[in-house]
Amino acid sequence: MFEKLIYRKVATSMIFLGICLIGIISLRNLPVQLLPDIEFPRLTVVTPYENAAPSEVEQLITKYIEEAVSSVNGVISVYSESIEGISMVTARFKWGTDIDMALIETKEKVDIIKGQLPEDTGKSVVVKFDPKADPVMIFTIVNKSGDFPKLRKQVEKEIIPYIERIDGVAVVDLNGGYHRQINVDLDIAKIFSHNLSFQEIMENVNLSNYNFPAGNIEKGNMEYLVRTLGEFSDIGEINNVVIGRNEAGIPVYLKDVGTVEDGYRDKRCIIQLNGSESIGLLIRKEPGKNTIETCEKVDEKFDELMSRHDDFAIIKIYDQSIFIKNAVNNVFISALLGGVIAFFILLFFLKELKSPVIIATSIPISILGTFALMYFKGISINTMSLGGLALGVGMMVDAGIVVLEAISKNKDENTGIFKSVINGIREIKSAVIASTVTSIVVFLPIIFLSGLSGAMFGELALTISFALICSLLASLLLMPMLYTVTGKTKTSLNSNSAPFGLNRRFFSISDKIMDYLIRVYNKMIRSALKNKAKIFALGILVFISGGILFMMLDFQLMPGIDPGEFSINIETPKGTTLNESSALCNNLETYLLNKSNIKYVYSKIGSDPEENIAERISGRSTNDIVISVILSPKRNVSTRSLVESLKKELRFGENVKTDYKIKENVIESIFAGNIKPLTIEVYGQDKEELTLLGRKIKDIISGIEGVQDISATLDHGYPELKLNVDRNKMAVLGVNIYNIASTVRAAIKGEIVSKYREKDDEIDIRVRLRKQDRTEREMIYKILVKTKSEMCVPIEKFISIDEGFSTSKIIRSEQSRVNVVTGNILSNKTKIIDEVKKIISDIELKEGYELKIAGENREIENTLNEMKFAFILAIVLIYMVLASQFQSFKNPLIIMLSIPIALIGISGLLLITGQTLNINSSIGIIMLCGIVVNNAIVLFNVIDDERKRGQDLLQAVIEAGRKRLKPIIMTTATTVFALLPIAFGIGEGAELQQPLAIAVIGGLLVSTLLTLGNL
Predict the structure, then answer these.
(1) Which of 416, 417, 714, 897 has its CB surrounded by the most CB atoms within 10 Å?
(2) Residues 6+ apart with CB under 8 A from 235
(3) Which residues lie below 8 Å from residue 169, measured CB to CB, with a gap of 6+?
(4) What kind and span of H or E run contains 628?
């Protein structure tokens, strides 16, 4: 086939031009994102149960839903949070589960147990969207003119509906601002004087605000609808609601016992941008939707909306798509730069323009062909797939170098250019195909990996495989044809008319280097053959040294990145008021804004659980402060170094907890939450015992150097006042528990008894005691309850009040209560986690209690096990390919000796550059299994041919070195130098592929050097 394509130049040109055309069209239609389209296999069941404490939610709702969800096919773990008034159960499924089918089955299971739940339980909703997922965009809305308290309502009506309609937007959360509310504040003394109860007042206000249809009447040939209009038409009418009558039968109006105010709900959350109060708007993306496309649509819509408004400004302070675009562009630039470097490496060694240009032609053609295959396979442009292209750029030219070198060696003026080309291809074709197949076959285990590593790197494996297949076809079909186009002419760089104006003295260095390397190689071979035992011992020593260095490497799930942002989570003592938290935040904001390199300081003080579900399940209160710091794109300092300096400079009181968080781990966005390096789960049923165990573990690990920011989910809760009821006294007075509980709630928190309609708006009408009657503990005793004898009595007659602490949420995992102890690790994670494992293994536990190391460490262990499997399988597949190629069981083993000696290069360079052993570097190691044997295949193939011609071993090895040393050095140099832009990790997101490139460079350099001597 290749002979026909060499002769038929036009047909060959059209075939490859067609591939380029399809590639260009495919490139325009490929989606762009940071990571492969990973839909984390989990579903969340959200069930409201109003006015229930966390313990009641757990017992009456969560347990039943956990049991139902656990029986769904594919579920591997169940995690739940029981919060006041809401249950949230999250089921995690096996990777590869059809999540749409799982959603249907989960809904069916939840519907089946609906009858076992309390009657007043709200409808359970099963969603893919995780309410804890990080927003992809954050905006703040700042008032320019007008009334700031009215700004939130304006945004709710004129902004939110348009944004939520955008395809890809899951939900828009609005934080801060003022919530309009009709406040009915009651005077407890006046209520007592008129012998009224809260229930009577609330019921009468509600019954006074109705429109009722009354049917139809006929008059003549007309039919009329009868409707009673009883809704409040203005706020003044609320004052005149009759809420009861005195002993003389005179009506008592609402205005007689309280005041009605068109005001706002009590503020529980404050949003500030650079010290000024504003409204926060968080955009959360639907799972599986493209981030860049979604963010672009949101930007377009905001530009359109802003053109209609000049009374407020919308400021974008965070856009995840910007980082994604920069990261993808940096990887693309690294790939392009790698290709340019590879071209000049070829130019330097070949000393003529024709061959480098022909070889370089394969790079854009292979890349465009890869884009076409990516499009048909459904692979997006992301840091993984583009990283695969960048890594493959240097490897793309390897086959071309070997092919053209073989053609050049077979060039004969008598036989003609076509015959020389065909003879050269025939000589080297099998070796080139074998080396390419060994490079591709190592990716087969990656494609079949399960879990996160398989989902993350399946696209990288496919992309490199596509690139190598395209480059192989270009090397065997296109390059030979192009070589014949220029006939016998040769543009030498040794001439005085060298291209690009390059001086021939510069290129004479190439000859000197090659002559020197051949002489050194000949000496090495002669010495190696005379000292076989020593060389073999040296190889074993190198292998053992590489293994020892590997043990010194730290482990992590993914390499850290510099996101250009960080957050400071501050927790003041439980029960701290919003005003006190705000004062602390303002001081810190002022300090941060005086720092250079900081662009925005976005603060969220407190939390309002009535705003949205994300706030409700957060567990935060008025004592919590979250400050998000967005750094300038032109900063001259890394995020990590800035945070470290702030830790030293900022000092808070002993009772104030601070936690600095940097989103260095891209996996956090997938897992929707903060995965801390150290996570210990304590399983059991008794809350008190779990709390004691959590404190014990905290005390133990706090003494370990390098562990900080230790916390437990069952730390001291919020201070609370517990009302204890004397049932005997209550029974004598004719009062029940429900009346007491509902009255106390209405008096302090208030009850929304009805809605005030104003055009299209519905405003809550909340009834409760006035502020001065509900601010002190002693005022609780004065709350009135009506007895069966229609007398109002204060609840002090039958209650006592104790102080204590409440649990904000109850966490369960695997249908058991769990106390989660977490901490950050500053130094060697592997060493510290091993130390923690040893320490907690000595803790004596009661029966029914268990300790587990979880979090990031669990994912690391799972990933390492998968990588070990992939590495072993890659070795086996390489052996099978080589055995098939050489028809021998022994020769492949000789060739594969180049793999273990590469370990010292990998571990050594990772240690020198400060990198860790993670998913990326592990993929680099697996890649090396295929790459490092390529040189050995080419060299061994020639040695074998020379032996068949009757040469002795020494002469065969020397001749092989003379023929193939130059292409081996060239292929190694092009691969290594093409990876250098990625290895330096310059630019946003470049850190993701950096350890992979470093592992390949280190292993390839060492294996090439030692393989030439040991083979």
Answers:
(1) 714
(2) 182, 260, 262, 756
(3) 163, 283, 284, 285, 286, 294, 298
(4) strand 624-631
